[in-house]
Amino acid sequence: MAEIPSCTCGQNEKKRIIFPCAGQANTGQITNLAAIQLTEEGYGSIACASLLAIGSEGLVTSARNVDEVVVLDGCPMECARKIAEAQGVPISQHLVMTGLGITKGPSRSYTADDIEKVVSACWAGEGKGKDTRTGSKKGAGPGTGCGCGCGGTC
């Protein structure tokens, strides 16, 4: 089967903001390091969940108007998700480190493999299109592609 070429014009690249919880535990630190790596790789731009929490008008406006908001939480407390929801920011992708099999520990130790697991999960689209509290799909169906005519393959 022939490979379908992706768009090269750049017009359909998603603009993403990444909010890591950046909590004190190892899993929180992993969210921050993964968000930095994702920013360096061009997946999106890291932003401060604490600044969002205090209702920074510019950040709230940007987060509400960007193509996708990615939230990385360290543990089932889901602080970053709760912050985004409290500010009326729609979440496009949500990952919880413990849900990816990373064990939350009392130290801030982590491995490069832990960070790569999160980065790879983001690029693979894990945690997209699901209601993070119920696991049910939302927003799937007609009109959810990129709009370039590729059928959502780019």
The N- and C-terminal alpha carbons lie at a distance of 16 Å
User: Helix and strand string, N-terminal first?
Assistant: EHEHHEHEH
Q: What is the class in the CATH system? A: Alpha Beta
Task: Describe the strand arrangement of the main beta sheet, using strand numbers.
Answer: 2-1-3-4
The strand count comes to 4
Q: Tell me the domain tally.
A: 1
CATH topology: Rossmann fold
What number is the mean pLDDT? Answer: 83
- Using the alpha-carbon principal axes, give the shape: globular
As a percent range, the share of helical residues equals 25-40%
**What is the gyration radius calculated from CA atoms?**
16 Å
CATH architecture: 3-Layer(aba) Sandwich
State the helix count.
5
Largest sheet: 4 strands, parallel
Percent of residues in β-strands:
5-15%
Low-confidence stretches: 131-154
Could you list some keywords that capture this structure?
Rossmann fold, four-stranded parallel sheet, 154 residues, 5 helices, alpha/beta
Question: Overview of this structure, please?
Answer:
The protein is α/β, with parallel strands linked by helices and 154 residues long. The protein has a single domain, classed as Rossmann fold (3-Layer(aba) Sandwich). It contains 5 helices and 4 strands; from the N terminus they run βαβααβαβα. It has helices at 26-40, 49-53, 57-65, 79-86, 112-124; strands at 16-20, 45-46, 68-73, 93-96. The chain has a 4-stranded parallel sheet with strand order 2-1-3-4, sandwiched between helices. It is globular. The protein starts with 15 loop residues before the first strand and ends in a 30-residue tail after the last helix.
